[in-house]
């Protein structure tokens, strides 16, 4: 199972009813919603992940089912690359919309699933704990994962920073990294509606020595949105929202209908070396 480690001394944290504690006496309280905050002050800097508005927007859009084909493909990929007992880390799990469905899929297949989700956003994790049955969630950085060396069979990395060295450290030899990112034309029509000069996404395959890219699948389909709130939510849940003027964002208010490209790349890496 993925061990959760103390961010102070690196010792294994034991889960208690209301906290996590290590043998050296470092203790971290669990929030009422269930997650534990392991992001110590000097790690966090000024960036604390997605804010409440972005999390709410993402929840509204995802619960509309528009990304259901992607979620189904992620679950299929996990299932095809897992054994009877699965130790899985979701690095950048957000509010666990994908994570919880992966857990459900594994359990339905009769597998034993031990799943840890980490994200830098407290607002996202407050929601995440309500989705899964036995998810263990922590506020933590992908660049300092609170998991032991070679403790994970599978790592999920869906629309989140690619921390290759940490994935190499925490994956077992032969373990899998499932990386999901937008393809070049993802949300092209949405960008055309907002920007005078839209641009394609830069979508190269990330690389890390010791992780071998074994498979790359592209999932392209069209989304039709007839809900103004969902159109706005789609834009507000993307990184574009923080880089766009209020004047450009206001263009969305006139849209009653949007047909837009959903384009994703799902990459499967295998760890081929000893750590």
How would you describe the overall organization of this protein?
Helix 3 (68-80) crosses helix 4. Strand 6, helix 5 (122-128) and strand 7 form a beta-alpha-beta unit. This protein is of the alpha/beta class. The mean pLDDT is 90. It is globular. The strands form two sheets. It has an eight-stranded mixed beta sheet, with helices on both faces. Strands 1-2-3 form a three-stranded antiparallel beta sheet, with no helix packed on it. The relative contact order is 0.16. The protein is 27% helix and 28% strand.
**Total helical segments:** 9
Helix content: 25-40%
Largest sheet: 8 strands, mixed
Strand content: 25-35%
What's the arrangement of secondary structure elements?
Elements: E1 14-15, E2 19-21, E3 27-29, E4 36-37, H1 41-44, H2 52-62, H3 68-80, E5 85-91, H4 97-108, E6 112-119, H5 122-128, E7 136-139, E8 152-158, H6 164-170, E9 171-182, H7 188-194, E10 211-225, H8 228-236, H9 246-249, E11 258-271
Parallel strand pairs: 4-7, 5-6, 5-8, 6-7, 8-9
Antiparallel strand pairs: 1-2, 2-3, 9-11, 10-11
Helix pairs in contact: 2-8, 3-4
